[in-house]
Amino acid sequence: MDFGFTPEDAAFRGEVRAWLAEHADLASDRRAWERTLGRAGWIGLGWPVSGYGNRTATLTQQVAWAEEYARCGAPPRSGHIGENLLAPTLIAHGTDEQKSRFLPPVAAGEELWCQGYSEPGAGSDLAGVRTTAVRDGAGTYRVTGRKIWTSLAQEANWCFLLARTDPAAPRHRGLSFLLVPMDQPGRIEVRPIRQMTGTSDFNEVFLDGARARSEHVVGGEGAGWRVAMSLLGFERGVSTLAQQIGFAEELGRVVRTALDTGAADDPVVRDRLVRQWAELRAMRWNALRTLGGSGDAGAPSVAKLLWAGWHQRLGELAMQVRGAAASAGPSPWSPGVPYQLDALQHLFLFSRADTIYGGSDQIQRTIIAERVLGLPREPKS
Predict the structure, then answer these.
(1) How far is CA 339 from its chain centroid?
(2) Residue 281: which domain range?
(3) Considering the entire predicted model, what is its pTM?
(4) Residues 175 and 164 sit within 8 Å (Cβ to Cβ)
(5) Strand bridging mode 132-135 / 140-147
(6) C-beta atoms surrounding 198 within 10 Å
(7) Domain boundary at 44, 79, 107, which?
(8) Which tens digit of pLDDT belongs to each residue from 24-78?
């Protein structure tokens, strides 16, 4: 399957590869890297409109960009939440004023965003959010509540979040989608969450009367659920293919380790390695198939189930081929010094969360059962 790549796509891929090779040395500073991407017009390739400082690209060219970006070893994007989640949502639901205000800084890599959905008592149950937004009579809302698992909150300039603006309305109808500036000392506090990998990719965000302007409500007051569900539909797409490039590199590292340790002599281990390779290839063809428009309403949920389980099994296999050495750090432990992990240990520990974040496996199966297969809805308490 070649997914319809054309000579024009090949030329585009060559341009991308050459540009990345020339500018890769600038990627050490992630904030500056976003601005470099923005100046070249590489942010917003997938937007259905241009004119905001972005260039647009066909679907196959977006695939080429994502694959080449992953192959060159460039760092994870700091601006992907604004580019791939907020921007398509504003294009679909925002006012002209909102688009003019927020899309150009995203395309320029100047403003970074985070997503305020999950809460301690409302993770997968998104309609159960308790954060409130109350009009104060001065054209603004006062937002009070607590968000959790907020990626990149420590770097973000803005947060788009769900808050309850009508506590008397049914759960799904009393929510609004607000754009909130993060630079509000005394009103917004960000606390990093230390993970078992030793890093802090997620944060808690505490809002105590944080201000949001009334003209920064997307879709209108009370339309938050509809806007939020639309945004979730943008979460998975071309980026899945880039993710698989990273998976292939991790699999290659596991295979090399199995050869070095002699674990590959075990026929059971060899079988597991081959199975991981075959399943990764199948995920690629499935991703290309659904990008081509032949998927169904459950395609994003199916894709999430596939890659999350696959990645967890790869982490487990990485520990198996290491043997007893998997439980030891790469350097002697010293008091007061954070523990160190090598790449395979980090893979194993971080991948434990794959079946939870971004929509747990249980939620994905419920979506497939109810919305695709038409099975009876799960009883609610």
Answers:
(1) 27
(2) 238-372
(3) 0.86
(4) yes
(5) antiparallel
(6) 12
(7) 107
(8) 888 889 899 999 999 999 999 989 999 999 999 998 899 899 889 988 888 889 9
